[in-house]
Amino acid sequence: MNSSRKVAIITGASQGIGAGLVKAFRDRDYRVVANSRSIKPSSDPDVLTIPGDISDRAVAERIVKEATAHFGRIDTLVNNAGIFIAKPFTSYTAEDYANILAINVNGFFHITQLAIAEMEKQRSGHIVNVTTTLAEYAIDGVPSVLASLTKGGLNAATKSLAVEYAKRGVRVNAVAPGVIKTPMHAPETHAALASLHPVGRLGEISDITDAVLFLESAGFVTGEILHVDGGQSAGH
Protein backbone atom coordinates (compact mmCIF):
# COMPACT_ATOMS: atom_id res chain seq x y z
CA MET A 1 0.00 0.00 0.00
CA ASN A 2 1.37 3.38 -1.02
CA SER A 3 0.63 5.68 1.93
CA SER A 4 2.64 8.71 0.82
CA ARG A 5 -0.25 10.50 -0.91
CA LYS A 6 -2.46 12.64 1.28
CA VAL A 7 -5.94 11.54 2.32
CA ALA A 8 -9.02 13.68 3.03
CA ILE A 9 -12.27 12.65 4.71
CA ILE A 10 -15.31 14.66 3.61
CA THR A 11 -18.72 14.37 5.24
CA GLY A 12 -21.98 15.35 3.57
CA ALA A 13 -20.25 14.43 0.33
CA SER A 14 -23.05 13.24 -1.97
CA GLN A 15 -24.11 16.60 -3.46
CA GLY A 16 -23.62 20.34 -3.35
CA ILE A 17 -20.57 21.62 -1.50
CA GLY A 18 -19.57 18.13 -0.37
CA ALA A 19 -19.47 16.72 -3.90
CA GLY A 20 -17.55 19.81 -4.98
CA LEU A 21 -15.01 19.20 -2.22
CA VAL A 22 -14.51 15.59 -3.31
CA LYS A 23 -13.67 16.77 -6.83
CA ALA A 24 -11.46 19.62 -5.58
CA PHE A 25 -9.35 17.33 -3.40
CA ARG A 26 -9.10 14.71 -6.14
CA ASP A 27 -7.91 17.45 -8.52
CA ARG A 28 -5.07 17.98 -6.02
CA ASP A 29 -4.34 14.23 -6.15
CA TYR A 30 -5.63 13.52 -2.65
CA ARG A 31 -7.27 10.23 -2.02
CA VAL A 32 -10.73 10.82 -0.55
CA VAL A 33 -13.05 9.06 1.86
CA ALA A 34 -16.54 10.41 1.18
CA ASN A 35 -19.51 9.96 3.48
CA SER A 36 -23.20 10.78 3.46
CA ARG A 37 -26.36 8.89 4.20
CA SER A 38 -27.17 8.45 0.50
CA ILE A 39 -23.73 8.28 -1.10
CA LYS A 40 -23.24 5.78 -3.91
CA PRO A 41 -20.10 3.73 -4.70
CA SER A 42 -17.49 5.53 -6.78
CA SER A 43 -15.81 4.23 -9.92
CA ASP A 44 -12.65 6.12 -8.91
CA PRO A 45 -10.29 3.77 -7.02
CA ASP A 46 -8.98 6.74 -5.07
CA VAL A 47 -12.44 7.64 -3.73
CA LEU A 48 -13.78 5.38 -1.00
CA THR A 49 -17.47 5.99 -0.27
CA ILE A 50 -18.98 5.04 3.08
CA PRO A 51 -22.74 5.50 3.46
CA GLY A 52 -24.24 6.17 6.85
CA ASP A 53 -25.50 8.78 9.28
CA ILE A 54 -22.51 10.74 10.60
CA SER A 55 -24.31 11.35 13.90
CA ASP A 56 -23.90 7.61 14.63
CA ARG A 57 -20.53 6.98 16.29
CA ALA A 58 -20.34 3.54 14.68
CA VAL A 59 -20.40 5.22 11.25
CA ALA A 60 -17.61 7.59 12.27
CA GLU A 61 -15.59 4.65 13.56
CA ARG A 62 -16.09 2.83 10.26
CA ILE A 63 -14.98 5.87 8.25
CA VAL A 64 -11.73 6.24 10.18
CA LYS A 65 -11.05 2.50 10.22
CA GLU A 66 -11.62 2.16 6.46
CA ALA A 67 -9.56 5.28 5.71
CA THR A 68 -6.53 3.94 7.53
CA ALA A 69 -7.01 0.39 6.22
CA HIS A 70 -7.33 1.43 2.56
CA PHE A 71 -5.09 4.49 2.40
CA GLY A 72 -2.84 4.24 5.45
CA ARG A 73 -3.32 7.76 6.83
CA ILE A 74 -5.67 10.70 7.43
CA ASP A 75 -4.41 14.18 6.63
CA THR A 76 -7.55 16.28 6.41
CA LEU A 77 -11.11 16.12 7.68
CA VAL A 78 -13.74 18.47 6.27
CA ASN A 79 -16.82 18.51 8.49
CA ASN A 80 -19.26 19.55 5.79
CA ALA A 81 -22.35 17.57 6.84
CA GLY A 82 -25.04 19.77 8.29
CA ILE A 83 -28.71 20.61 8.18
CA PHE A 84 -30.47 23.98 8.24
CA ILE A 85 -34.11 24.47 9.12
CA ALA A 86 -35.41 28.04 8.88
CA LYS A 87 -38.38 28.53 11.20
CA PRO A 88 -39.49 31.05 13.77
CA PHE A 89 -38.00 30.00 17.11
CA THR A 90 -41.34 29.06 18.64
CA SER A 91 -42.21 26.88 15.64
CA TYR A 92 -39.30 24.48 16.02
CA THR A 93 -40.32 21.02 17.17
CA ALA A 94 -38.45 18.76 19.54
CA GLU A 95 -37.70 16.59 16.50
CA ASP A 96 -36.20 19.56 14.62
CA TYR A 97 -33.99 20.32 17.61
CA ALA A 98 -32.85 16.71 18.00
CA ASN A 99 -32.10 16.30 14.28
CA ILE A 100 -30.06 19.49 14.02
CA LEU A 101 -28.04 18.69 17.14
CA ALA A 102 -27.47 15.13 15.94
CA ILE A 103 -25.96 16.08 12.58
CA ASN A 104 -24.39 19.46 13.29
CA VAL A 105 -22.92 18.69 16.72
CA ASN A 106 -22.82 14.95 17.36
CA GLY A 107 -21.61 14.31 13.81
CA PHE A 108 -18.81 16.81 14.29
CA PHE A 109 -17.84 15.40 17.69
CA HIS A 110 -17.52 11.72 16.79
CA ILE A 111 -15.59 11.94 13.52
CA THR A 112 -13.37 14.81 14.68
CA GLN A 113 -12.37 13.06 17.89
CA LEU A 114 -11.47 9.88 16.02
CA ALA A 115 -9.66 11.69 13.19
CA ILE A 116 -7.55 13.82 15.52
CA ALA A 117 -6.48 10.69 17.39
CA GLU A 118 -5.04 9.37 14.11
CA MET A 119 -3.49 12.74 13.20
CA GLU A 120 -1.72 12.88 16.55
CA LYS A 121 0.11 9.65 15.69
CA GLN A 122 1.66 11.28 12.61
CA ARG A 123 1.92 14.71 14.30
CA SER A 124 0.19 16.43 11.41
CA GLY A 125 -3.32 17.03 10.17
CA HIS A 126 -5.97 19.60 9.36
CA ILE A 127 -9.62 19.93 10.34
CA VAL A 128 -11.96 22.27 8.45
CA ASN A 129 -15.44 22.91 9.84
CA VAL A 130 -18.06 24.29 7.45
CA THR A 131 -20.25 26.62 9.54
CA THR A 132 -22.29 29.69 8.57
CA THR A 133 -21.96 33.46 8.69
CA LEU A 134 -25.42 33.56 10.28
CA ALA A 135 -23.91 32.20 13.49
CA GLU A 136 -22.23 35.56 14.07
CA TYR A 137 -24.29 37.91 11.91
CA ALA A 138 -28.01 37.28 12.16
CA ILE A 139 -30.32 38.69 9.49
CA ASP A 140 -33.83 39.98 10.11
CA GLY A 141 -36.23 37.77 8.18
CA VAL A 142 -33.89 34.75 8.14
CA PRO A 143 -34.81 32.77 11.28
CA SER A 144 -31.80 30.64 12.08
CA VAL A 145 -31.42 30.21 15.82
CA LEU A 146 -30.71 26.46 15.71
CA ALA A 147 -28.13 26.94 12.97
CA SER A 148 -26.56 29.68 15.07
CA LEU A 149 -26.66 27.51 18.18
CA THR A 150 -24.94 24.56 16.52
CA LYS A 151 -22.68 26.14 13.91
CA GLY A 152 -21.76 28.94 16.30
CA GLY A 153 -20.69 26.20 18.68
CA LEU A 154 -18.46 24.78 15.94
CA ASN A 155 -16.87 28.20 15.42
CA ALA A 156 -16.01 28.29 19.12
CA ALA A 157 -14.80 24.69 19.05
CA THR A 158 -12.60 25.53 16.06
CA LYS A 159 -10.65 28.08 18.08
CA SER A 160 -10.47 25.88 21.16
CA LEU A 161 -9.20 22.85 19.24
CA ALA A 162 -6.74 24.99 17.28
CA VAL A 163 -5.07 26.09 20.50
CA GLU A 164 -5.25 22.65 22.13
CA TYR A 165 -3.56 20.88 19.22
CA ALA A 166 -1.29 23.60 17.81
CA LYS A 167 1.87 22.11 19.33
CA ARG A 168 0.90 18.63 18.15
CA GLY A 169 0.91 19.51 14.46
CA VAL A 170 -2.86 19.59 13.94
CA ARG A 171 -4.47 22.74 12.56
CA VAL A 172 -8.18 23.52 12.92
CA ASN A 173 -10.02 26.13 10.86
CA ALA A 174 -13.54 26.92 9.72
CA VAL A 175 -15.18 28.27 6.58
CA ALA A 176 -18.33 30.30 7.24
CA PRO A 177 -20.35 30.55 4.00
CA GLY A 178 -23.10 32.92 3.07
CA VAL A 179 -25.86 31.51 0.86
CA ILE A 180 -24.41 29.15 -1.72
CA LYS A 181 -26.12 28.09 -4.95
CA THR A 182 -26.85 24.42 -4.25
CA PRO A 183 -29.86 22.12 -4.74
CA MET A 184 -31.00 23.23 -1.27
CA HIS A 185 -32.26 26.54 -2.72
CA ALA A 186 -35.00 26.59 -5.36
CA PRO A 187 -34.22 28.82 -8.38
CA GLU A 188 -37.17 31.10 -7.63
CA THR A 189 -35.53 32.04 -4.30
CA HIS A 190 -32.15 32.98 -5.78
CA ALA A 191 -32.82 36.68 -6.36
CA ALA A 192 -34.03 37.27 -2.81
CA LEU A 193 -31.16 35.27 -1.33
CA ALA A 194 -28.61 37.07 -3.49
CA SER A 195 -29.79 40.37 -2.01
CA LEU A 196 -28.51 39.23 1.40
CA HIS A 197 -24.94 39.68 0.13
CA PRO A 198 -23.44 43.11 -0.56
CA VAL A 199 -21.88 41.73 -3.77
CA GLY A 200 -25.41 40.99 -5.03
CA ARG A 201 -25.05 37.34 -5.96
CA LEU A 202 -25.20 33.88 -4.46
CA GLY A 203 -21.97 32.11 -3.71
CA GLU A 204 -20.84 29.31 -5.97
CA ILE A 205 -19.71 25.91 -4.75
CA SER A 206 -16.27 26.76 -6.13
CA ASP A 207 -16.10 29.76 -3.78
CA ILE A 208 -16.23 27.37 -0.84
CA THR A 209 -13.92 24.73 -2.26
CA ASP A 210 -11.37 27.43 -3.08
CA ALA A 211 -11.53 28.65 0.52
CA VAL A 212 -11.08 25.15 1.95
CA LEU A 213 -8.11 24.51 -0.34
CA PHE A 214 -6.58 27.86 0.66
CA LEU A 215 -6.76 26.86 4.31
CA GLU A 216 -5.39 23.44 3.42
CA SER A 217 -2.25 25.03 1.97
CA ALA A 218 -1.91 27.81 4.57
CA GLY A 219 0.33 26.12 7.07
CA PHE A 220 0.63 29.17 9.37
CA VAL A 221 -3.16 29.57 9.70
CA THR A 222 -5.05 27.89 12.52
CA GLY A 223 -8.07 28.90 14.57
CA GLU A 224 -9.37 30.99 11.65
CA ILE A 225 -13.07 31.51 10.84
CA LEU A 226 -12.88 32.38 7.14
CA HIS A 227 -16.03 34.18 5.99
CA VAL A 228 -16.93 33.40 2.39
CA ASP A 229 -20.15 35.33 2.22
CA GLY A 230 -20.04 38.08 -0.37
CA GLY A 231 -19.46 40.71 2.30
CA GLN A 232 -22.40 39.68 4.48
CA SER A 233 -20.22 39.66 7.60
CA ALA A 234 -18.89 43.14 6.83
CA GLY A 235 -22.32 44.76 7.10
CA HIS A 236 -25.27 45.99 5.09
Automatic annotation (TrEMBL):
- Locate the transmembrane regions by residue number: none
Q: Which GO terms describe its molecular function?
A: oxidoreductase activity
**Which keywords are on file for this protein?**
Oxidoreductase
Similarity-based family? Belongs to the short-chain dehydrogenases/reductases (SDR) family.
Q: Tell me what this protein is called.
A: SDR family oxidoreductase
Recorded source organism is Dyella choica
